[in-house]
Design brief:
Elements lengths: L1 H21 L11 E4 L7 E4 L3 E5 L2 E5 L3 E5 L7 E8 L6 E8 L6 H7 L1 E6 L29 E8 L2 E6 L2 E7 L23 E6 L7 E9 L5
Antiparallel strand pairs: 1-13, 2-5, 3-4, 4-13, 5-12, 6-9, 6-13, 7-8, 7-12, 9-10, 10-11
């Protein structure tokens, strides 16, 4: 009964996430999704910082770091973002950056002025896949898959950020909600982030090899 009650409490957030922008079942699943990276071109993507994300057999693969590959053509807000990725090893590390207010001159600008949606299975409940790195606590502990594709869905709705991994809700955060204090220089500066911003993919460092297959966006629709 306790488990069922917990699921019922999570249903409204999941309904907003899936019903609003991220339903992925059947032929109509692709309707409205616009690829920013589709495995064939890096048009619009720019690199800052050391290392790189190499285009290898239709996938972006992290090498070195700490760097950031960011999409320069537009700021994103009030949309769904879908990322398909996989880990090569259990301790791989990467992240998806959102709400970066200005073109990042280095990867630390994105850390301190945007949010990193973490990709890592080895951290605690504030430093693991689907969390806003060091800021939010995972509502469900979900590991990213190793040698299999995982799908991360990020809903940007005004000041609200909702993240799921493979259909399970991990983060539902609205600007201004309390967060723990910053503990060290590797954690982001605290403070409000903009409703619209650039997005990016992190290459965290050697020997991580995180593969990205697709990055797509879709306008929000009202949930029923």
């Amino acid at each position: 009964m306790i488990a069922r009650a917990r699921i019922l409490l999570l249903l409204p957030a999941l309904a907003l996430l899936w019903g609003g922008c991220c339903h992925t079942t059947g032929p109509a699943a692709e309707t409205g999704w616009r690829p920013l990276f589709d495995g064939t071109s890096l048009d619009g993507w720019k690199m800052t910082g050391p290392g790189e994300l190499k285009l290898e057999q239709g996938e972006l693969v992290t090498h070195g770091g700490m760097g950031l590959l960011w999409y320069s053509k537009e700021k994103l807000g009030d949309c769904g973002v879908r990322i398909r990725f996989q880990l090569s090893a259990k301790d791989d590390n990467s992240g998806v950056f959102i709400r970066i207010p200005e073109p990042p001159s280095d990867p630390w600008y994105a850390v301190n002025h945007g949010y990193e949606v973490q990709i890592a299975n080895t951290g605690d409940d504030r430093h693991r896949t689907g969390c806003l790195y060091s800021l939010t606590t995972a509502r469900n502990k979900v590991d990213a898959r190793i040698h299999e594709w995982s799908t991360m869905l990020i809903r940007l709705e005004g000041p609200r950020t909702v993240v799921s991994l493979d259909g399970q809700l991990i983060t539902d955060y609205t600007e201004g909600e309390p967060v723990p204090p910053k503990k060290n220089d590797t954690e982001p500066d605290r403070g409000l982030r903009p409703n619209r911003g650039y997005i990016g993919l992190q290459n965290h460092g050697e020997p991580a090899r995180v593969h990205f297959q697709n990055v797509s966006v879709r306008p929000l629709t009202k949930s029923r």
